[in-house]
Design a protein that fits this description.
Oligomer: single chain
Helix content: 25-40%
Number of domains: 2
CATH superfamily of the largest domain: SPOUT methyltransferase, trefoil knot domain
CATH topology of the largest domain: Alpha/beta knot
Distance between the termini: 52 Å
CATH class of the largest domain: Alpha Beta
Radius of gyration: 19 Å
Largest sheet: 7 strands, parallel
Length: 259
C-alpha cells in the first residue's frame, strides 16, 4: 500500500467531494482505537502508540496481531493531543446490508437517520447507540453524513460496536423492516400520537429520527406506525438530534426492560 501523504489533523480531514471513493484514514483516541482493535482488527493497517497504554489495551494490542509502531505518525501535523497517544491507520468503514436486521429479537432497537448530515451529530448518536446496545443504525446513501475518521473518533468505539447499513430508499426500507416484524416509530414535533413515555413500547422498535430543520420526510413519515415526541419542560423548543436520540433511546430501553 502506498504511503498516505495527506496531512493528518487529528482525524478531522476536509470532507471529500461527493461520490469520491473512501480511502484509508486515521482513527484517533483511546476508546475508538481500542474498540477497533477488539472488534475490527482486520481494518487496521497499523497502530502508532506514543504514550503508555492501559494494561487492558496493551494486552489487546499484543493478542490482536495488528502491526504496532512506537511514536506518532510522521504526518501528524497538529492536534496530536486529541489522539491521546494512539492512532490507527484503518481501511474505510464497512457498511452492512439491510438483511442484517431481518430477524430481530424482542428487545431489539434500531435507529434510522433520515437526513442527518452533521458528522458530529452522527458520531454522538453512534456513541449513544454503543452505550445502550442499539441493534443497528441505518443511513440513506444520499443527503446524509457517512462514517468518517472524525465520526469514529466522536463515537468513541460506538461505530465499531454498532452495525451500520446504508440504503438507497428509506421509505421502502421501512416497509421491508415492517414486514420483518419491526414497529416503526417516527419522531415529530407536530402530529405526534403520544409522548414517548406515555406508551408501553414492546417488541422490536425501529426509531426514525429526522433532520433538525425539517424532521422526517413526508414519505418516510407515512411508513411509521406511531409518531412520538420527547416533551420538554423549559422554554427552549427542541433538542438537537443527537441529544434527542439519547433521551429517546434511554426511554425505549427502559420500556423494553419493564415489558
Amino acid at each position: 500500500m502506498k504511503r498516505n501523504k495527506s496531512k493528518v489533523r487529528g482525524g478531522n480531514r476536509r470532507h471529500r467531494r461527493h461520490g469520491s471513493k473512501p480511502k484509508a484514514d486515521w482513527v484517533i483516541g483511546i476508546h475508538a482505537v481500542q474498540a477497533l482493535v477488539e472488534h475490527s482488527p482486520h481494518r487496521i493497517e497499523r497502530v502508532h502508540v506514543w504514550r503508555k497504554p492501559s494494561e487492558e489495551l496493551e494486552k489487546l494490542l499484543q493478542s490482536s496481531g495488528v502491526k504496532r509502531l512506537d511514536g506518532p505518525p510522521t504526518d501528524f501535523e497538529s492536534a496530536t493531543h486529541l489522539a491521546q497517544g494512539i492512532a490507527a491507520f484503518v481501511a474505510p468503514f464497512e457498511y452492512e446490508d439491510l438483511d442484517r436486521f431481518r430477524s430481530p429479537q424482542q428487545d431489539a432497537l434500531l435507529l434510522v437517520l433520515d437526513g442527518v448530515t452533521d458528522t458530529r451529530n452522527l458520531g454522538s448518536i453512534l456513541r449513544s447507540a454503543g452505550f445502550f446496545g442499539v441493534s443497528g443504525v441505518i443511513l440513506p446513501k444520499d443527503r446524509s453524513a457517512s462514517i468518517t475518521a472524525l465520526v469514529e473518533r466522536i463515537a468513541r468505539g460506538g461505530s465499531a460496536l454498532t452495525p451500520v447499513a446504508r440504503v438507497t430508499n428509506v421509505a421502502r426500507s421501512l416497509q421491508q423492516l415492517s414486514k420483518w416484524g419491526w414497529t416503526i416509530v417516527g419522531t415529530a414535533l407536530d402530529g405526534a400520537d403520544s409522548e414517548i413515555h406515555d406508551r408501553n413500547w414492546s417488541g422490536p422498535i425501529c426509531l426514525v429520527l429526522g433532520a433538525e430543520d425539517r424532521g422526517i420526510r413526508p414519505l418516510v413519515r407515512a411508513q411509521c406506525d406511531h409518531l412520538t415526541v420527547v416533551p420538554g419542560s423549559g422554554q427552549v423548543q427542541s433538542l438537537n438530534v443527537a441529544s434527542f436520540a439519547t433521551v429517546a433511546i434511554w426511554e425505549l430501553r427502559r420500556s423494553h426492560r419493564e415489558a
